[in-house]
Write a structure and sequence with these properties.
Elements (H helix, E strand, L loop, with lengths): L6 H30 L12 H26 L4
Keywords: Membrane, Transmembrane, Transmembrane helix
Protein name: Interferon-induced transmembrane protein
Organism: Demequina zhanjiangensis
Amino acid sequence: MSEYIEWSALGQVVLFGLIVGAGLPALFAVGVRALAGTGARDEDGHVRGSRAAVAIACFAVIIAAIVGAIVYIAAGGH
């Protein structure tokens, strides 16, 4: 049966699917949680600096993935 299945290609597809299919939504959830979670705001109602930095980093990675995917598709990627 192994002559019909390319195991390395299958592994790459599964790994990419896990990263994109589960990793990016989880990263988005971490960013939202950093901004809106318990203890995210100080007494004045402002978001704490460390939490804002975590949220910005999470959202920047997500935006970079989206832009990278659009560029890849527009360049004729397969």
